[in-house]
Amino acid sequence: MPTIDPELLAPLFKISDILLKRPGKVSIDSIKRLSNIYGFETFTDTLALENNGKEGDVKNNLVYNLSSHSGSPINAREVGLLVDRLSLSGKILLIDIDFLEGIVNNVSISSAINLQPIDGEVYDFLEGWNGVEPVENILLSNLRCNTLDQFNKNLRILSQFDRLSLNPPNDLFNFFSQLTYNLVTVHKYQEKKLEEHQQDFTNDPSCALNGDEVTRNFNEGYFGLGKILLNQQTKIGLFLKIWEDNRFVNRYLDEKKGVKTREVLTPYFIHFKITENIRNDTGEDKDEDKETGGVSAVTITSAVGVETTPHSITNGVSATGDVSTVDTMDETPETTKSAESSGIKVRWFDNGDWLINANDTALNSNLNSLVLELCPSIWIPQDLLMEFGLQDYEVRTTDNDFFNNNQQDFDDLNLDKFYSRINKNHAIELRLESGKTIRVTYLIGCPMVKIFKITFGRLTKLCDLVNSLRNWCLLNSLMRNLLEHRAKDMEIEAISNAEENGTSIAEAIPSVVAGDTTTTTKTTVSSTTDDTSGEKEDLGEMVEDLRLDDVMKEYASLLDQDRTDDVSSENGSAPDLLSIEDLESDEIALIKGNDTMKIKDGMVYSKDKENVRMAEILTKTEQLVEIL
User: Where are the compositionally biased (Polar residues) regions (predicted)?
Assistant: First the structure.
């Protein structure tokens, strides 16, 4: 057989990706074509419904095959009420999709894998866990849309689980069940530690939140590991909810005014996925530039993560285990009561220590295939990934936005332009609506990247990574909100031109009308009285009033007795300085003049007692303009 020219592979893969990004409208032919690309065998059948069930509900009716219609066209209606069934068959999964009158009426999934209970509970994303929708319901919702876009993404996940699974019980279905169980175990451990140290937050004069507020953040996923979820919104699989922009403002609006903001409806998730480029690395692969794509296996040594991390509430885990003495099939305490018969290592974490070691060959093989997809993407320093030993990742750029669209990234043009300028000049001057000019400087020593996917086999470092990502989520929210308060006639492109030409911002941008200090923050909200509709209203004026009058002023009033106006800055003198510095992987310094604060654990901490109120305002409003 002639060899394939490698120069043709890249454009062919690109064409294939384009076709997969445009899977077409919902129809039997489109689903068959898509399924065949992902390796499923497809076949169709014509079925009839008995009349003794509820009309239109396939599950409650007896379905039998009409052999006389086996050769009839799809959607034929010669006899009674007919159902056209499209079956997608893999090596593990069988997916049946029923069409009634040309509309998808039902989706059912059966699996050849029998998941074993762990401590009496089955963590099965196919069937749903902890009250979440099963996968078949998510797929049914996908197929009732006009296009196959979201169904395409979920079908790809299912095809990867089907094709890439090792032999049971080391298949990916059992692996994700065990992964969910161990994440729950870590979460319970952190919850216990937080209960023991809750009062420490209240007693800490530098902490902006008290113990009760930190506990609520933990329960909602904004502190510690995050909130463990399955099958969220229109996506299937395992998720960690780690952040929500403007969360304190959102709570106020929800609890006091009965409205939900866009941030509540689209929080920050980590979506656990599988990469197909695993098992074996070549030297060429390791030398490739991984920044814009390409994922390969992390070595088993890095998956073990033999270095020990200190016990703390937000981390609370360490990696232990002598690789020469711990056996893969140990059943004490690594295997649980329900899984002892299978002989697999189910418990990876116990009382603050990770038990994963180099002898866990099958487990490490699955861990090496793990990919974290950030929904939405997050701006972080590139060096942060290196500190965690992560070399395989994908970033969002203008060149690959089309291919990396995860349908949860929101339009963030202002912040994207902002970091584009920061990467070029390390600093940027902004003039606010009040007339004040500030100079924002990033002292981080590396480019900022908009991270989208990370190949992540080092489960022992997950808590640390989540904490670091959460800190940058908060800083990005502070910057995003600050950009909303820049002068109305001031665009970042004009800032760029002024900096490159050596002119001042005051010369490049005309002054705003005196006395026009109106601040407007546009946010999409939906009424809680109409949650089921899923429709969103644009209540910009209402939200402006709620945010500024009811929420932000409540916290800003804390500074009234200490706040003084910087007259020289407003008169056009040297701008105020705001510096950002990454002290540690889990800390960000925020320096304003002589005032130094730090962002840690998704909160702002003050350096001294005088700045506690300032830290509280930044934490609860995420508005830098309130302290400038």
Answer: 314-327
Question: Residue 58 and residue 534: Cα distance in Å, rounded?
Answer: 26
Q: Which residue has the tokens 């304003």?
A: 592
Weakest-pLDDT range from 124-128, 241-245, 263-267, 347-351: 263-267
Spatial distance between the Cα atoms of 196 and 469, rounded to a whole number of angstroms? 25
Q: Which run of H or of E encompasses 543? A: helix 540-545
Residue partners of 50: CB distance under 8 A and separation at least 6: 61, 62, 63, 64
Residue 299's pLDDT is 29
User: Using CA atoms, how far apart are residues 291 and 447, in angstroms rounded to an integer?
Assistant: 12
- The letter for the amino acid at 409 is D
Residue with tokens 């006899």: 79
User: Which residues, including other chains, have CB under 8 Å from residue 151's CB and lie 6 or more apart?
Assistant: 23, 26, 31, 34, 139, 142, 143, 145
Q: Could you tell me whether strands 318-319 and 268-274 are parallel, antiparallel, or unpaired per DSSP bridges?
A: unpaired
Cα torsion 203, 205, 207, 212: sign: positive
For residue 160, list its beta bridge partners.
Answer: none
Q: Alpha-carbon distance 247 to 622, whole Å?
A: 9
CB 374 within 8 A of CB 443: no
215 token code pair? 């506990």
Q: Note whether 134 and 192 are within 8 A (CB).
A: no
**Cβ atoms of residues 109 and 136 within 8 Å:** yes
pLDDT digits (tens, 9 = 90+) for 211-220: 999 999 999 9
Nearest to 138 by CA among 180, 183, 104, 103: 104
Which amino acid is residue 530, in one-letter code?
Answer: D
Domain ranges of the chain: 6-123, 299-367, 477-626
For 468-513, write each residue's pLDDT tens digit.
999 999 999 999 999 999 987 666 655 555 555 554 444 444 333 3
Question: Residue 123 carries which DSSP code?
Answer: -
How far apart CA 526 and CA 581 sit, in angstroms, is 37
**506 to each of 82, 390, 490, 502, 514, how far by Cα in Å?**
72, 43, 10, 12, 14
Judge contact between 357 and 304, C-beta under 8 A.
yes
**Distance of alpha carbon 592 from alpha carbon 144, whole angstroms:** 52
Residues 173, 111 contacting (CB under 8 angstroms): yes
In three-state secondary structure terms, 386 is helix
96: three-class secondary structure by DSSP: strand
Residue 260: enclosing H or E segment and its boundaries? strand 259-261
Mean pLDDT of the chain: 76
CA 90 to chain centroid, in Å, comes to 29
- H helix and E strand count, the chain: 20, 22
Q: Scan for tokens 């690309």, then name that residue.
A: 37
Judge whether residue 401 has pLDDT over 50: yes
Summarize pLDDT for 548-560 with one digit per residue, the tens.
445 544 544 544 4
Cα separation of 262 and 69, whole Å?
Answer: 50
Q: How far apart are CA 554 and CA 343, in angstroms?
A: 58
Contact 453, 393 (CB under 8 A): yes
Beta strand ranges found along 384-535 (DSSP E)? 393-395, 427-431, 437-443, 448-455, 525-527
Residue 449 tokens read as: 């990247």
Structure token pair of residue 252: 């106020």
182-186, 281-285, 426-430: range with lowest mean pLDDT: 281-285
Structural contact between residues 456 and 238, judged by C-beta atoms closer than 8 angstroms: no
Cβ distance 241 to 229 under 8 Å?
yes
